[in-house]
Amino acid sequence: MMIFLRLKSLLTVGGIGFLAFLGLLAFVAIFISDETGDFDSSMDLGSPDYLQHIALSEDVLAHQPMVEKYANKYGISDYVPVLLAIIAVESGGNAVDVMQSSESLGLPPNTLDTEASIEQGTKYFAELIKSAKTKGVDDKTIMQAYNYGGGFIDYVAGRGKTYSFELAQNFAKERSGGKKVTYSNPVALEKNGGWRFGYGNMFYIDLLQLYLRVPSFDDDTFQLVMEEALRYENYPYVFGGSNPNTSFDCSGLTQWVYRKAGINLPRTAQQQYDATEHIPLSEAKPGDLVFFHSTYNTANYVTHLGIYVGNNQMYHAGSPIGYADLTSSYWQAHFVGAGRIKN
Predict the structure, then answer these.
(1) More confident residue, 66 or 46
(2) Domain 50-212 is in which class?
(3) CATH code for the domain defined by 219-341
(4) Helix, strand, or coil here: 145?
């Protein structure tokens, strides 16, 4: 195990306001490598760090040891809470084919026994993660794809790479030919009065989220983001770069460091802007993002972004990676606004 210590001076950080936020006279970042439970290198989408939102039933929790066994086997231990949520939604933990995974093998429903169901469901979810990494889509797309099939990953990849309920609804509409069926689940009753399209379940993410939450973006999360970001200070800016061993571009850096704090962002600056709640800079807090336009010629309006650290400062992939003053004439001329990451 390696421990790396880093000190940031008052002048380098750029102001008393930032230091007051951290409550330190020096910024100390402690990095611990060789962590247990990470993905293998071929499947690294970061550490989602999902948490159980409400108590799962005893029937579901009874399957946790086996879920952990196969999640470890297929390299997705970080997703154990998601797999348990899938069991809660698919069967409540009571069916023999507890993850309803027979159909992912092309078998009739309820063909597999319980252990085979958990192994196949976990393996299938791992395959979806691999596909998602290749296509650059987010975690919610993966979870919905467990219900819809891998074709949903391609569908979202071609439409902005970020899950939305609208995309899930449109996919089901196309696959069902527009056929609607009654669906009296409270989630559906609240959203549309109680119906869904007759293909899969377009409310699948809503149902899973009854059993999940992700860490809120708070001071501790911001510190995790900055601890990771400071590892790459003075790295070169390379367009398209997203390699912690060599270089980053602006959105590659933010995607990487927020992922390390359990927050998944899409890949490009425009996509990250579209995925945030837009707020004025006066309301921005450390950990929010700041966006800029026309910093180079491209079809997208938003072309650059950074991490807001307080006191009109940002940390970004400039040339090189480091801090910048948002009150400078250059950044003022290109400023779009701030964005708050949606939970």
Answers:
(1) 66
(2) mainly alpha
(3) 3.90.1720.10
(4) helix
The answer to whether the bond into 186 is cis (omega within 30° of 0) is: no
Closest CA to 82 of 226, 227, 220, 207: 207
Instruction: Quick: pLDDT tens for 64-77.
Output: 999 999 999 999 98
Closest to 324 in 3D by CA, of 333, 332, 316: 316
**Coil, strand or helix: which one is 22?**
helix
Name the residue ranges covered by the structural domains of the chain: 50-212, 219-341
pLDDT digits (tens, 9 = 90+) for 48-66: 666 665 668 999 999 999 9
Which pair of tokens denotes residue 240? 């398209």
DSSP states of 72-125:
HHTT-GGGHHHHHHHHHHHTTT-SSSTT--GGGGTPPTT-S-HHHHHHHHHHHH
Spatial separation of the C-alpha atoms in residues 52 and 74, rounded to whole Å: 21
The tokens of 223 are what?
Answer: 């510190």
Q: What is the DSSP letter of 282?
A: G
Q: What are phi and psi of 235, to 5 degrees?
A: -65, 150
